[in-house]
Amino acid sequence: MDRIANFFASPAMKVVLLAFALIFPLIAGSEYQIYVMALAFIWAIAVYGLNIITGFCGQLNLAHGGFFAIGAYVVAILTVDHGWAFWPAFVASGVFSAVFGFLVGIVSLRLKEHYFAIFTLCVGFIIYLLLDKWEALTHGSLGIINIAPPEGFGLIDFTRTIPFYYLVLFFLVLAIVLVSRISSSLVGRTFLAIRISDDLAQSLGINLMRNKVLAFVLSTVYAGLAGGLYAGVVRFIGPAEAEVVHTFDIITYLLVGGIGTLMGPLVGTMMITWLTQAVQSFEEYRMIVFGPMLVLLVIFMPKGVVGTFLTWRGRRLASKAPAKEGQTRVGDSATSSKEARDNA
Amino acid sequence: MDAFLQQALNGLTLGSIYGLVALGLTLVYGILHVPNFAHGALYMVGAYISYYVMVDLGLNYWIAMLGAGLFVAVLSVLCERLVFHPLRHAPPIHDKIAAIGILLFLEAVVQMHWGSDFRRMPTPYTGILEFGGLVLPAQRLLIIVGAFSIMGALHLYLKKTMTGSTIIAMAQNREGAFLVGIDANRVAMMTFAIAGFLAAVGASLFAPINLVYPAMGHLVIMKAFVIIILGGMGSIPGAIVGGLIIGFAEALGGYYVSSTYKDLIAFVLLVVILSIKPTGLFTKGVR
Amino acid sequence: MLKINNLTKRFGGLAAVNDVSVEFAAGQINAIIGPNGAGKTTFFNLVAGAMPPTSGSIEFNGMDVTGMAPDRIARLGIARTFQTTKLFEQSTVLDNLIVGHRLRTQSRLWDVIINSKRLRDEEKKCRAKAAEVLDFVGLSHIGHRYIADTTQEERKRVAFALAMATDPELVLLDEPAGGINPEETENLAALIRKMVDHGITVCLIEHKMDMIMSLADKIMVLDHGEKIAEGTPEQIKTNPVVIEAYLGSEEDVEA
C-alpha cells in the first residue's frame, strides 16, 4: 500500500505519465481518441491557469472561460481577417490575454472574496456579449471559420491529429513545468500566503496587489494560450466558447483533481474527459452528474483526488518518521540548551 | 417626451422584476454571507413550474404562480439544508462552488425534462391600457402592481412578525443575534424559503412577456448581483432601489443608446462603480 | 522606538480609538489592556497599517509611518500576530515559515522562469531563516508535521516564528495566550522574554492579568478607545481609575 503510494508521489510517476502520453497515439484505439486527448490537454492548460489564481492565490475567478475565448478569438481574427500566420497570432493571443488580464486585474483584484467572484462573473459575461454582438470584429453569432492551423514549415503537418497531439503535449508539459517551478518557489509561496489570508500576507510584508495581479495575469495568459491552441486545432469558433458553462467545466476539472495541487488539474481534466467519453451521449446532460458532484466534493472531499491523496500520505509519513526534519538545520545544538532553559 | 415616459414605464416593469429577484439574493446574503449563484436557477425553475401548471395542467395563472412559489420555496430550503448548512464553516470559496453546482444541476434537469427550446407562456391578461398616448399592456401593469404588492407584504412580514424581525436582526448582526438566542437554523430556512418564493413569483410574472428557456436565469441573476452590489450587499431597500436603477438604465439606455448592447449596461455600470468604490455604493463603515 | 501622537480612528460616528498618545521604548515588553471593545485590536491595526487612522500620527524609529501600507510597514520592521492563528493547514510547519522571510528577498517571476542563482540563494536563505526561527520558538522537532496535526500552543508558537522570520524590530502580539492553558501560558511568556533578550521590542494585547503583571515593563490601559492610564505594573495595579474601569470588574485578575 505504502509502496504504491510512494510511487504515485515520486518523480518516477511523472516519467511514467510522460511516457504514457508519448506512446498514447500508438496505443489509442482510434484517431478520435487521440483528438479527444489533445483537446483534454488544451483544457488542462487552461485549468492550470485557473489553479494559479484560484488554487494558489485563493481568488475565485469566474471569467476564466472568457479569457480562453479571447485567446481563441485573437488567433481566429488575426489569421482569418488579417492574414496573419498562426504562430505570430498565437503569440499575440498570449500577449493580448496578458494585457487584458492586467487591466481587468488591477480593477477586480481590489475587491475581496465575493465581490471578486461576482465581478469576474460579470466580466466573463461582458466578454461573451461582446463576442456575440460586436459583429464587425467577431463575426457575431456566425462565428469564425477557416482559422489557420499552426505552420509546420514543410516539416510537419499540424492539420493532422497526431502531430497536433504532440504539439499540444509539448505545451502542456511546458505549462506544468512552469507551474511546478512557481509553486515550489518563493513566488508560489507568496501566492499561498495570500490564499491563507490577505491580512496575514500583508503583515508578512507581501504587496497584495502586485502579487495578485501577477497571479491573475499568469492565469489569463495560460487561458489565452490554451484558447489560441484550441482555435488552431478546431479551426472554427463561435461566441459559445465564451459561455460561462466553460468556466464551470474548468472549475469542475480543478476541483475533482485537487485545487491548489500540482497534478490536480491534469488528473481532474483526464478523469472527467474520459468519464464523459465513456458514457455515450452524456455530454449534453453531464451537468446532472457534475452539479451534484461539485456539491458533494466541496462538502466531503474539498481537496480533490490529488489533494486528499497527498494529505493522507503526508500524515502517514509524519506519523512514521518523528523528529527528523528541522534538526539538521541551523545550529541546533547551540540553541537546544538555551531552549531547555527557556522552557523550564 | 412620450417616448421617454414609455421607456420609463418599461424600466419600471423591468426594475420591479429585478427588484424581486435581488431581494431574495440580498436576504440570503445578509443572513448567511453566501452569494447564491444558484438563485437564477431557482428563478428559472419557477418559470418552468408556472408554465407546467398553467399550460400542461391547464390551471389558472394565479394558481400556477402560487404553485411555483411554493415549489421553489421548498427547493430553496432544501438547498440550504443539504448544501449551505453543511458548508457554513468551510472556506469562502467552497460555498460559491457548491452554489454553482446547484445551478448546473437544476439547469441540466430542466433541460433534460423540457428540452432547450424557447417556450412562450400565455397570459390571461392580454388587454392593452392607454393613458393619453402611453401604451401599457395589462401584463406589464400586473407585473408592476404585483411586484410592489409583494414587496409591501414582505416589508410587513419583516417588520411585524417575530421571525421577520429576527431575519432583520440577523442580517444586521449575526453574532448579536446568536447571543439573544435566536434559532439560527429556522431563520436561515425561512430566509431561503422567502428568497425562493420571490424568485419564482418574479419569474411567473415576467414569463408571459418574455421567453421560458433553461438559461433564462443567467442574465437575471447577474443583474441581480449588480443590483445588490449597487444597493449594498444585504440591504433590503438597496435591492429595490438598485433594481429600479438598473431597470430604468436598461430601458432608457436600450432606447437612446443602443438596443444591441442594452444587456451590457448593468455590467458596465458595475465595472465603473466598483472601479471607483471597491466596496459598493451604499456600504457603511468597515464591511 | 514607537511614538503615537493623538491617534484617533472613527467608524461612522463611533471612535474606536480616541486621541491616544503613547511612547514605547526599545527592548521592552509593552502591554495594552482593557475591557472587550476598548479598541485594542484597532490600535494594533492602526500601528500595523491595516487601516489608516482618522487623525493623529505614528512614528517608528523616528520615521512617520502614518497611513503607510501594511506591507511597507512590515518591511520597515513591524511584525504582528493575530488573535486567530491562520496558517496553511495542508502543509508542514517548516513550509509555512519559509514565506516569512520573503519580504527580505528580491526574486520575481523571471527568476523563477530561468531558475536564477538569485532565486536559489534566496530560497536557501528563507529556508535557513525558517529553520532558525523554528528553533528559536522551540519547535524544531515538529518541523515536518502538518499544521492540521499541531496543538493550539504549537500553532501559537508557529505564528510567533512566522512573525520572527520577517526580521522585525517590533512585534505586535494580539492575545498570544488566548485559548491555551496556564502551563502553556507560562512557556509562552518565557518565549516572549526570549524575544526581548534577542533585542526585539514586544507589544502585546492580553487578558491574562497575571501574565501581564509579571511580564510587562510598561502597561497602557484603554477603555472605550481612550487611554485611561499608563505605567509600570505596580502603578497600574494601584491606579484607582484602572481598578474602577477594568480590574475591579474583571474576574481573571486572580486567575
UniProtKB/TrEMBL annotation, chain C:
SUPFAM superfamilies: P-loop containing nucleoside triphosphate hydrolases. Keywords: ATP-binding, Nucleotide-binding, Transport. The keyword Repeat does not apply. Residues 2-249 form the ABC transporter domain. Pfam families: ABC_tran, BCA_ABC_TP_C. GO terms for molecular function: ATP binding. This is Branched chain amino acid ABC transporter ATP-binding protein.
